[in-house]
Write a sequence for this structure.
């Protein structure tokens, strides 16, 4: 079981690195939930994959590297790095992310990513917005609201 779950994580990130959203989707349980500092709580494979498809479509130079995969019977962790150009500012972002997984029926049923939103905002937005305001609740709320609105628009137009 542990080897299979480790392979599932490798398959997911390998597909992500190749920009193969269909293979990524096959790694997820139909009832998957996803959360991170921006997309705090997405439910269902369609919505979670909508987020990944939107992000893949926006980043022509996305690089994904995974390491430190560790699994137990029903849980797993990994560390991954996303590097890309943030479209709104043209600034380079290298985001270090810790992922937690829960497995059910041989698939990922819970995926939670954690990263430093303040650090991300500094890279993505630069001075002064990201550095001065990157830690404020107001900017965090704006980032989250903008992301969720973009996802809604993406989901209705595809």
């Amino acid at each position: 079981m542990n080897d299979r779950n480790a392979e599932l994580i490798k398959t997911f990130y390998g597909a992500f690195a190749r920009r193969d959203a269909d293979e990524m989707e096959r790694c997820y349980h139909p009832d998957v939930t996803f959360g991170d500092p921006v997309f705090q709580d997405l439910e269902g494979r369609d919505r979670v994959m909508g987020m990944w498809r939107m992000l893949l479509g926006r980043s022509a130079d996305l690089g994904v590297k995974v390491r430190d995969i560790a699994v137990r019977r029903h849980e797993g962790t990994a560390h991954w790095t996303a590097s890309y150009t943030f479209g709104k500012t043209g600034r380079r972002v290298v985001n270090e992310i810790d992922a937690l997984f829960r497995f059910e029926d041989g698939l990922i049923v819970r995926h939670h990513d954690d990263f430093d939103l303040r650090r991300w905002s500094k890279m993505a937005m630069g001075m002064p917005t990201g550095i001065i305001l990157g830690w404020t609740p107001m900017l965090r709320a704006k980032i989250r609201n903008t992301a969720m609105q973009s996802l809604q628009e993406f989901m209705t137009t595809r």
Q: What stands out?
A: The beta strands are 28-35, 42-43, 63-71, 75-86, 91-104, 107-114. The mean pLDDT is 91.
